[in-house]
Amino acid sequence: MSSHLGKSKSVSQFFSFVLTCHLFLLIGMIHSSPPENPIKCSSKNNSNCTITNSLGVFPDRAICKVSNAIYPQTEQELIAAVAMASMNKIKVKVATRYSHSLPKLVCPDESPNGNLLISTMNLNRTLSIDNSTMIMTVESGVLLRDVISKAAKVGLALPASPYWWGLTIGGMISTGAHGSTLWGNGSYVHDYVVGLRIVTPASPEEGYAKVRDLDNNHPDIKAAKLSLGVLGVISQVTLKLQTLFKRSLTIVREDDSDLATRATTFGKEHEFGDITWYPYQRRALYRLDDRVSINKSGNGLNDFTGFRSTLTPALAVVRVSEETQEATGDANGKCISARVTTFALRISGFGYTNDGNLFTGYPVVGYQNRLQASGSCIDSSSDNLITACAWDPRIKGNFYHQTAVNLPLSKVKNFIEDVQKLRDLLPEAFCGLELGNGILMRYIKGSNVYLGTEEDSIDFDITYYRSKNGSTPRLFEDILEEVEQIAVFKYGGIPHWGKNRNLGFIGAINKYKHAAEFFKVKESYDPSGVFSSKWTNQILGLDQSGVTIVKDGCALEGLCICSEDIHCAPRKGYVCRPGRIYTSARVCTDINRVDSDSDISITTLVEEEDLGFSDM
To answer: Which UniProt keywords apply (predicted)?
Structure first.
């Protein structure tokens, strides 16, 4: 008894320490240090440059070197840049303000005449808003934040959007960014686009570059709306908006026993509904989110905790804690941290407030522009990194993998049941992903663009620990690798183009019925491949070398699927083995881990009861 009480006291102290750190993360700072420009150049004339993603590291950890970067401020300057590159056969890619696509979509191949980045940072103007027609035209570098706020000022709203507002309109539609709804036009931003202007290479007779003005009646727009940047540079986007409306949302926490069945119908019951799933805790958070009368009282605000500016010392403590848990194999500590994290988020309303200041409970009622997205960590001037966005690569903060796969509703039930079977075998293996707030499930309505999801689907979005050292295996690596391979291969899931590790894109293009139509437009717009790269050719199936990189340790970061032990980390006890329930999977398994040891999860639950948090 005394031994148990001593252990309970020890865990209580650790719990209190971790909770204190997470409460610091809940505090929104007035100031912040917005992320830097992802383009870094060693000379004042923007030459000898590098570019990376928002995390500072691409999935393959390669450094992308670029000869020159330019920042056009007008469409004419953009045309001149494309013409110069086309004439000189220079490889080009387009960069956005914060470079949030994790794969190497932004990295141009090196060529004899150099390579070029065209940044849309200064193409950031709202060109027109017509309140009577509800039509808005913006330049491609305008942030989602500004689309939302400018529209709201004239009583209009974009009905669907991602939850993070630090994305540009050009970047969103080019990678298939989305919110969560099966209603109306759906959740893809590109399905609210009614026109766009794109600058593409052209013949010498046409001056090496031309502007193509496309509307919804033009057949090529099905390729241009979601193009991965391989057709040219989008200069302007025209959106069809709606009259500004109000929403009412309530987040309900339930056990996950009927999640597999309920998930297939929930999106049809609530216009903006989504689900956050905590497999280890056997809980699911259902967001009941619908339009309400504009007269319903409430001025709610979404300032999501994870997108706020945060004290960098608190971020460092949380990161060091997880690194220590990984290094020592402390599954119990991860499970406690996960429950603390999700508890802290829940009691704070996930950053929602009822009046812009305080969260007093559900429902939260407010206007669409105040609830649909957030990202306050980019909204103020620098404070010398006293605070920052949690993933800013300049600090010791979040560093992660992200797996995001769309599954048609017809396959959702079986996928969830497979994950639950894995969870039942080894519950503590899922604590790590709950530190990233679990599995986010957003609804996607089928779209008619060539590279979009064709059926009504759920996007399963999982964020989980990544080591700063690419040769270091993760705790319970095999379990999440099996989840990933079940989604991608057993059920034929479609990867989000702007997320995922390399293996998520294996055979991806074969899952699109109209890929051939996309290739016809690509050949017409850019026959010389000025805007193509090795990576885009690989994910589009045009480079037979494929997306995988086979080398020692390649499976540890999803660069390959292991077929030999050396693809894992055999010297550290991680070897290639079949999956537990999906035996066609090949995963890196820790042979030193005692699979039958279920005391970890049982102990965790007992200790939390002692602490009074058994129902967190």
So the answer is: Ascorbate biosynthesis, Oxidoreductase, Signal
**CA 139 to CA 372: how far, in whole Å?**
21
Residue 31's pLDDT band (cuts 50, 70, 90): low
Amino acid in position 602: I
pTM for this predicted structure: 0.93
Is the predicted pLDDT of residue 609 greater than 50, yes or no? no
CA atoms within 13 A on the CB side of 47: 2
| Alpha carbon 77 to its chain's center | 31
Q: In one letter, which amino acid is 186? A: G
The two tokens of residue 55 are 């995390």
Tell me: the pLDDT tens digits for 255-289? 999 999 999 999 999 999 999 999 999 999 999 99
Pair 369, 299: CB distance under 8 Å: no
Residue 76 contacts residue 505 (beta carbons within 8 Å): no
| DSSP type of residue 349 | G
| SS3 per residue for 89-129 | CCEEEEECCCCCCCCCCCCCCCCCCCEEEEECCCCCCEEEE
Are the C-beta atoms of residues 252 and 270 closer than 8 Å to each other? no
Written in H, E and C, the secondary structure of 541-597 is CCCCCCCCCCCCCHHHHCCCCCCCHHHCEHHHCEEEEECCCCCCCEEEEECCCCCCC
* Chain center to CA of 421: 26
Note the residue count of the chain.
Answer: 616
Q: Is the pLDDT of residue 5 over 50?
A: no
Tokens coding 218:
């033009």
| Spatial separation of the C-alpha atoms in residues 474 and 489, rounded to whole Å | 22
Give the residues across from 264 on adjacent strands.
none
Q: What is the pLDDT of residues 316-372, one digit of tens each?
A: 999 999 999 999 999 999 999 999 999 999 999 999 999 999 999 999 999 999 999
Cβ–Cβ < 8 Å for 582, 485: yes
Query: 386: Cβ–Cβ under 8 A, 6 or more apart, which residues?
Result: 29, 31, 33, 311, 312
Q: Which residues contact 8 (CB under 8 A, 6 or more apart)?
A: 607, 610, 611
Distance CA 34, CA 387 (A): 9
Please give the Cα distance from 404 to 431 (Å, whole number).
18
Q: Distance between CA atoms of 339 and 253, rounded to whole angstroms?
A: 14
Amino acid (1-letter code) at residue 280: Y
Q: What is the pLDDT of residue 593?
A: 82
Measured CA to CA in angstroms, residue 424 lies from 254, 447, 470, 581, 598 at distances of 18, 36, 29, 11, 10
What secondary structure, in 3-state letters, does 162-198 show? CCECCCEHHHHHHHCCECCECCCCCCEHHHHEEEEEE
Max CA pair span of the chain: 88
Is 527 in a helix, a strand, or coil?
coil
Closest Cα to residue 250, out of 174, 360, 161?
360
Report the half-sphere exposure of 547 (CA within 13 A, side-chain side).
26
Phi, psi of 463 (to 5 degrees): -115, 130
Q: How far apart are CA 86 and CA 200, in angstroms?
A: 9
Half-sphere exposure of 508 (CA within 13 A, CB side): 28
Q: Which residues pair with 39 in a beta bridge?
A: 51
Q: Mark out the alpha helices in 436-528 (DSSP H runs).
A: 477-485, 515-525
